[in-house]
Amino acid sequence: MMKMTGPAGLLSVFLAAAHPAVGQQAAPVAPSRPAPPGAGPANIRYALTFDSSTAMSRTVKVGMRFDVTGAGPLSLSLPAWTPGSYEIGNFVRRVEDFSVTMGGRDIGWEKTDFDTWRVRPAGSGTVQVSFTVLADTLDNGMDWSRQDFALVNGTNVFLYPEGSDLSFASRVEIHTQPGWRVVTGLEPESDAGTAPRYRAGNYHDLVDSPFFIGKFDLDSARIDGAWHRLASYPAGSFTGADRQLLWTQMRGFVPEMSKVFGEVPFTTYSTLVIFDSAMGGGSALEHRNSHVGIYNPNFIGTPVLASITAHEMIHAWNVKRLRPADMMPYRYDRPQPTPLLWVSEGITDYYADLVLVRGRVIDSTTFLAVTEGKIQNVIDRPAISLNDASLTTWVHPLDGTEYIYYDKGSLVGLLLDMEIRSASGNRHGLDDVMRTLYQTAYRRGRGFTTADFWAAASQAAGGKSFTDFAARYVDGRDALPWRTDAPLAGFRYQVDTVMVPRLGVNTLSDSSRVAVTAITPGSAAAEAGLQAGDELVRVGDVAVEGNDWGNVFRARYGAAGGTVVPVVVRRAGEERTLRVTIRLEPVINSALEFDPGANRAAVQIRAGILRGSGGS
Questions:
Q1: CA–CA separation, 337 vs 105, rounded Å?
Q2: Which neighbouring-strand residues pair with 310?
């Protein structure tokens, strides 16, 4: 998963601000609770209904049918979270009008806990479960709808029988308005008739294949041996040169992903995107052969969109297949914390940058600027170990470390790449580590452990021990070793501390405006009443225009601490003037640069990293 409401990765390079703050093939699941007495369900079928009628109430009708051979009770549960979104969603809150029938007659049921229903079949036959879910939450792990469109996530709607092996096959039928489309990563049935019907080989694949239903733009292209589909809502919002740009970028970076891991693990892949001005920034969530991205329209045409797209696609290898042992198999009734999100998310983000360079979407100078932004973000946050950050994301800490395992994990990936290549004479790199884990863990039907990761790293580095590295920079909270490691790849690193004026806003800019996407709590902007969604017009006597206005603001007010200046914003189409007290705050500025005096070996390592060469 990737969330971008503040400066991370490419966002820190392309957004102007007044120094912003900021097929799954899983093993069968074990019973989540003791198996209830009675006969288990068979021949499980699901149905979703979303049309112009249900759209009026922003609901989706859900049906589940299955066969039983006896009258024993059985329990049906709804997942509590969506894998990839490391938080409990309690989707059951949006369930309404729950009913169970057999032969057209109501049968008994009761709740056994907040997300579980005990159903009491009236003998052998077919059980029909029906309910509706509210589709009113603009979040890529939830359900959301408009008058002509719905995003439906499987974890929000598909019940599973408790105590059963979740390897059961099923099919899903979609009932919708004539002329409306359906896109999902599930495999379509050729004999589905008038209503689109899809099949899933197991419950994990079922709930890991979201649906777009309604009116949206859709096209496809074959890339690196697989068919890729691009679906976007609202229809007409992402067309022409901007859409073709993303296709061009994908043709560049997608093949670089399979080179790292050694195969293409899907035959089709669907990129599902929603553009809505209510979204302050951008957020995306990976699935087994698709991902859902929700973005502010200002992301269209920027490299940020390509970066997030690459991040989520890499997850098709790293997370959806290569996965920490703590998350094998997925359980849907409780959190599954792991200390290895820095690998699953952070190293994924490192490769999201690398494949853009290797695929010639961005150049090496931009890659360096992206890396500098991540270094600065880590410096600006409280010191925390990567293991701790990975574990605590489930509770969303409020100290700024909630998602730091993305940037810090990405940086540790780069440092390891440097050290492995240096130790192996540039014959091996982090690519080899990830490929080894993919073959020895995922391909053998198991999750990887911390010991597996460091063993693969040591092997790639010719036996070099990473015990001290892990203790200091992954388990510990030491500052990352840029001064010593940067020269290994022909870089040099410098830091200094300066006092700069800060408003405490994150912004997103395009050719015509600069919009506020987030406000830092307790900042000067927060105290003055600025809000996410405001369009900045003027700060003091600095016109907010283009990508350089933040630098102009800092130069103009660098010695004006305590000065009260007017800030003009456009809110709901009207200009308002707020008064902001300029604050000067200490900032540690880091600089990672190409070293023109680097030796030949270091230059070769740098080239190996950026081009994907040198490794086996």
A1: 43
A2: none
Cis peptide before 73 (omega within 30 of 0): no
Structural tokens at position 395: 């509770």
- Whether the Cβ atoms of residue 328 and residue 446 lie closer than 8 Å to each other: yes
Interatomic CA distance for residues 277 and 297, integer angstroms: 6
What 3-state class would DSSP assign to 158?
Answer: coil
Does position 12 have pLDDT exceeding 60, yes or no? no
Q: In the structure encoding, which two tokens stand for residue 314, read together?
A: 């890499």
- 3-class DSSP state of 436: helix
Q: How far apart are CA 500 and CA 559, in angstroms?
A: 8
Cβ atoms of 96 and 70 closer than 8 Å: no
| Contact between residue 208 and residue 83 where contact means Cβ atoms under 8 Å apart | yes
In degrees rounded to 5, what are phi and psi of residue 158?
A: -100, 115
Q: Which pLDDT score is estimated for 512?
A: 76
Percent of the chain with pLDDT over 70: 93
3-state secondary structure of 296: coil
Cα 6–10–13 angle (5° rounding)?
85
Which residue has 């919002």 as its token pair?
Answer: 237
pTM of the complete model: 0.83
Spatial CA neighbour of 334 closest among 133, 115, 119: 115
Helix residue ranges per DSSP H, 393-490: 404-423, 430-440, 450-460, 467-469, 482-485
pLDDT of residue 413: 98
Q: What CA–CA distance (Å, rounded) separates 187 from 185?
A: 7
- Single-letter amino acid code for the residue at 140: N
Query: Is pLDDT of 133 > 70?
Result: yes
Residue 610 CB: number of other CB atoms within 10 A? 17
Cβ–Cβ under 8 Å, residues 114 and 77: no
Both structure tokens of 117:
């229903």
The 10s digit of each residue's pLDDT in 442-474 is 999 999 999 999 999 999 999 999 999 999 999
- Give the burial string for 421-458 (b: 16+ CB within 10 Å, else e): bbbbebbbbbbbbbbbbbeebbeeeebbbbebbbbbbb
Q: Is the pLDDT of residue 616 over 60?
A: no
Torsion sign over Cα 432, 433, 439, 443: negative
Between strands 268-275 and 290-295, the pairing is parallel
Query: Read out DSSP for 321-354?
Result: TB-BGGGSS--SSS----TTHIIIIIIHHHHHHH
Measure the N-to-C terminal CA separation of the chain; round to a whole number of Å.
29
What is the distance of C-alpha 5 from the center of its chain?
12
Handedness of CA 24, 29, 33, 34 (dihedral sign): positive
And the tokens for 235?
């229809």
Mean pLDDT to the nearest integer, 112-129:
94
pLDDT of residue 550: 86
Nearest Cα neighbor of 317 from 352, 368, 275, 359 is: 352
**pLDDT tens digit string along 136-151?**
999 999 999 999 999 9
What are the structure tokens assigned to 293, written together? 């991205």
CA-CA distance, 79 to 331, in Å (whole number)?
Answer: 8
Q: Is 525 exposed, middle or buried (0-12, 13-18, 19+ CB in 10 A)?
A: buried
Give the tokens for residue 259.
């080179």
Supply φ then ψ for residue 40, to 5 degrees. Answer: -80, 160
